[in-house]
Specification:
The protein is of the alpha+beta class. The chain contains five helices and four strands; from the N terminus they run ααααββαββ. The model has no long low-confidence stretch (mean pLDDT 84).
Length: 186
């Protein structure tokens, strides 16, 4: 093909449409300002107002907690007096380590009971001294066996066993009992 026959585009009309720049008009500027204010208000809600409300709620909770603390401190004002009363009436460490005397007396009542006449019982710390009479030596052995079967008895020692003189078979005995706290069951 030859270049002479080629047709080139030709502009046959003229575009007279002209778009006016309205970005400088006061109404357009006002719209942009309102748009920026709306965004700032939205961001201000999350960045300022919500934090302010949260702070106020925290202050209210703090005031309530301080009121509760003040009430508790008022109720504890006489703590030292209560502590002194507790220490006065509660068992000391030494007393807590001792075996319950009623438990020991109950043991002696069941072991010795009606078989002998109990003359004297002395309980001191972890030992008990029992004197009884009007029993035979066989009954003394039975009493010792019953005492040693108890979990609160660590051991027994028969100090004396002598006749009373009233009858040839009856004796008077004195037993020293070593006490212990009940052993934990295995």
């Amino acid at each position: 093909m030859s270049r002479k026959n080629a047709s080139y585009p030709v502009k046959a009309s003229m575009n007279l449409y002209y778009k006016v720049d309205r970005t400088k008009k006061p109404a357009t500027v006002a719209l942009y300002v309102l748009f920026v204010l709306a965004i700032l208000l939205g961001a201000g809600r999350f960045l300022v107002y919500d934090l302010w409300v949260e702070t106020e709620n925290a202050r209210e909770r703090l005031n309530e907690a301080q009121d509760q603390l003040e009430t508790a401190m008022t109720s504890l004002a006489d703590y030292e007096e209560v502590k002194m009363d507790y220490q006065r009436y509660s068992a000391t460490e030494e007393e807590a380590a001792n075996i319950d005397r009623m438990e020991v007396l109950s043991l002696l009542d069941t072991a010795v009971g009606s078989t002998a006449e109990i003359g004297n019982i002395s309980i001191s710390g972890s030992t008990a001294q029992v004197q009884f009479s009007s029993v035979t030596l066989a009954h003394v052995a039975e009493i010792v066996k019953r005492l040693e079967d108890s979990p609160i008895v660590a051991g027994t020692v028969v100090n004396t066993a002598s006749t009373t003189g009233d009858s040839r078979d009856l004796v008077s005995a004195s037993i020293l009992i070593q006490l212990q706290k009940e052993a934990a069951e295995e």
